[in-house]
Amino acid sequence: xxxxxxxxxxxxxxxxxxxxxxxxxxxxxxxxxxxxxxxxxxxxxxxxxxxxxxxxxxxxxxxxxxxxxxxxxxxxxxxxxxxxxxxxxxxxxxxxxxxxxxxxxxxxxxxxxxxxxxxxxxxxxxxxxxxxxxxxxxxxxxxxxxxxxxxxxxxxxxxxxxxxxxxxxxxxxxxxxxxxxxxxxxxxxxxxxxxxxxxxxxxxxxxxxxxxxxxxxxxxxxxxxxxxxxxxxxxxxxxxxxxxxxxxxxxxxxxxxxxxxxxxxxxxxxxxxxxxxxxxxxxxxxxxxxxxxxxxxxxxxxxxxxxxxxxxxxxxxxxxx
Length: 321
Prior knowledge:
By secondary structure, the protein is α+β, with helices and mostly antiparallel strands. It has 17 helices and eight strands.
């Protein structure tokens, strides 16, 4: 769709004058410089962004995010205060929003030096195979509260169940948007979700996770723990503070640290990564077999981009082996 300012340009152009033809040509060139056309389901005008070293599918299907949902030829996200739809065609991202423009470079960490990351974390054969399997996978940059709620729901649950729970939370307490002829729901803010009770969440199938979410939301609404404060800490301190939230253990704290707060050294360990450690990285258990000891050993081994190493290994172990 055209913006108001673009329609004004059209109105100004379509009038009797000696420069009518020039005005139309100028308008078309100006619009095409900012947007790309998509025609499969009608003439839908979308913005475009050229990318290099990025796979939308691998990034959004590797298990690191529950904010993005498959929709048609692309993916949709309503957890950022508006709705954004993105699809990829070769080295071009085509996207549309319900309101303002969005910074896809920030959402998908397109500025991360991927070639350098690969060089730094490739320490062995299994790591090289994992990178080769999905070389353009990038760590996501999800909003803090939706990421936290999603991974609180993830405890002892598979991906379909997690998506079912998070969608139920969105539909019951989140903001609704009309987008492309559909109603889309975003994850509620802490203030919105503070209206939910444990019993109401249990009716949605969250079981004992309900108490985790209610109590964690209360702490965040009270300002005892905030995203801004966490971002101003180093990884170790932020991880420690996250664990003060009800139900947040080492793994959930690492997931939020990596997939939302941008601590790229975080190394979440779940059953898949535990298998990888047992089969390929026994050295990680030399100083101890607790979660904290193994995660610390992995951070020391892979360095500042240990989180990327984790996600490549995780995706490879689930999908290729």
